[in-house]
Amino acid sequence: MATRSKFLRGRKIDPAPITSKTTLVSLVDEAFLAYNAARLREACQLFTRKMLEAEVTIGLSLTGALTPAGLGVSALIPLIKAGFIDWIISTGANLYHDTHFGIGLSMHQGNAQTSDIVLREEGVVRIYDIFFDYSVLLDTDAFFRKIIEAEEFQKPMSTAEFHYLCGRYVHERERKLGLKDRSLLAVAYEYAVPIYTSSPGDSSIGMNVAAKALQGNKLAFDPSLDVNETAAIVLAAKRNAGNPGNTGKKNSGQRKRKPGQSAVFILGGGSPKNFLLQTEPQIQEVLGIDERGHDYFLQVTDARPDTGGLSGATPGEAVSWGKVDPDRLPDAVVCYVDSTVALPIITAYALAQHAPREPKRLYERRDEFMALLLAEYKKSKRR
Hints:
globular, Deoxyhypusine Synthase, 45% helix, three-stranded antiparallel β-sheet, 11 strands
């Protein structure tokens, strides 16, 4: 008998029938066996079994209109509360539409085939099959314009500081309205998860900031702070300075801690994806600090690399830029599935399979991380 090929050592495809008692975890592990279902299984397992280890810092990038579809409430907030997301880069639009939920405004399911001319006449705004009243935009605009009049906003700042301050106001509005865990901004404030926006002018939030600037408002976003703070978060993660209890000091009698690791969880692509990944080239290429790249790469996308629509970085391509550690390519998964399908499944799988992690509260340690970045940059020959 001929020797069995090494290519036939994979798991035999012999699933159990799905029944009324099949759980989501069993469905993913036992029925998602091929094609993008298998990639989604690999995504769930990579996230839960490796990325959620205590020494891993997880950065999330967020594109596409996910919060108006309710995924901020249903998936992202539970992930933050479980300690499964440590820092975020989002489009401004996702944060703007997230605010609707936190200040008591409503979004509705609709029919994408409805005439937009009729909807305009009715004062209804459409995001594909999500409908909401035009007044939702006006009321949210008024909310942001009012809060950025406060004295604490009258200065240049990183977008993380801006969103943290905004989150505090949304959190207070939720409290007054008797709401709980409705806004990603509010929960990120509560758990000190820093949120950055790579293009702060590209949203209704930025438009309202620009409008107030015409009236003399002094708020200005500092992109250099964003670039350096995000690089500092990643460097601290790799130096294992960002985990709870790690202060950079060696204590006698303690067991040796594991090396720190950085993971990227990418929903969609675009500018937030690049901003998340460019942290490693900023550290290595620009600042000349010794580093090798992110350790874990998980992306959910419907874009294609051959048209340039994958935002310039499959995991392998990212290696050539120094964005991903070449030794960690086996721990890279690209799942070609709509984020509105994959994110709830990954969230439910992780919450069922992994105990909550202690929140890292990275926002509160930005100054410490920036000091680490500056100290290593001073040793660099790139200066």
